[in-house]
Batch of 3 targets.
Target 1
Amino acid sequence: MDNLGIISKYGYKCVLISGLIFILSWIFDIWFWLFAALFIATLWVYRNPERLPQSEEAKAILSPIDGIVDSIKKCNYNGRSYSQIVIRNRIFDSGVLRAVCDVDELIIKKRSGLNIHSSDSNLNLLSNRVTIMSKKEDIIIRISTSAFSSKIYLENFTHMKSGRRIGFLKDGKVAVLMPLNTRISYSKGDKIKACDVIGYIDE
């Protein structure tokens, strides 16, 4: 199913329910403004903005989601060292997940966990998490849910095309692990949008 409408397909159910409640509140004149605000907020949470990659260079790494840069550091994964940038997506940021670069032969691992706030230091250890890895490229994406989101929505894909929609996260954190020779363009605390260039991999 295509996911190109102004509202993400993953929000259709919530938008429909809040819309029906809004219509009933209008008909019966019960808390009209409250349910109108709820309906508008639901539309905003599940908005599906169009984004074009800020760069189409092969060595460019794009942001997978809107949010705030939570941390930038070196880390180890499966015995290898990476540069890691973590983006904290808040409930009113656009939750559309996008591919950070062209990647083939993907491995996707899912793990169930707890719903805890995205600012909690134990988020990566205890939350629901999906890890997307490439067999060839040194690129790893780790997606963790938060207190307001119990599910990570992913498209059915076996490869990623830079900037394309790959899923939806209502609230949580997304970590991008890149080669150590990646020149990162952001600092902790910076606002970032999906498809902005995080950095470039040096030759």
Note: Helices lie at 12-28, 32-45, 123-126.
Target 2
Amino acid sequence: MNQKLDKKQVSFQSENTSNRLGHIASNLARLRTFCNTAYPEAVESVADETMCFIEWTASEIEPEYAEELVNIQVQLARWKLKFTSLWSNESERKNMSEQASAWSERVLDMSGLLSETI
């Protein structure tokens, strides 16, 4: 693992799990947005980062939530395997965008951040 990734992991894991889930939800929302742009590199980059975030979080949360996160991680990995063909198909990109949006909402709900009182 390179130093930049090590620093990112240490920084990310210093957050509480609610905030980590919030970061994952935010990344998934960014994926939704980037699927509607002309920047496939942005989608791939955010997908990679999100898979790392999930890896660094799943073992520290309730098993049923961890399972959902791992399922998201697996689907992101599947997208990466056939990314070129998905990206070139507007219908597939729309499906990716919609799925990322649904995941974002679900992970944000898991985080409990919206129900916390300030």
Note: The radius of gyration is 14 Å.
Target 3
Amino acid sequence: MPPPQPEPQDDETAGAALAGGDGSTLPQEPQEAASSSRLSVRRESGGSLPPRLELRLAGELDADTAHALREHLAVLAAHSAGGLLVLDLSGITFCDYPGLYTLLSIRRTLPLAGIDVRFTRASGVLRATAERAGLTTHLALGGAS
């Protein structure tokens, strides 16, 4: 089943992978990959060397939205020659345990594809959920928003 289509105002929805090994950028990924009415992924900046992609997550990261995020990042990893992925988590307004374990999976698996992962600006909601689950250290959450 294809992921949901982005809403029209989501023109900046994340869609580009990290730069290829030759320094060129890859074609855009499917715009709808990690967008739903409850979780959005937006490209904040990137294009530096070494390749760096910054994405801002906003909304609810839960059992229903985590799958689309995993799919989006799997496509990104498949088309990437490596680099750094920075996920700004300041816009997360709700996170359940499946959402936390999705972040943990991202943190552990993308480095296998040569993509270093850094989480920054974890929202208070996300930080509290991670503390309850005992995953704050494992997630290496960046500074609070």
Note: The mean pLDDT is 75.
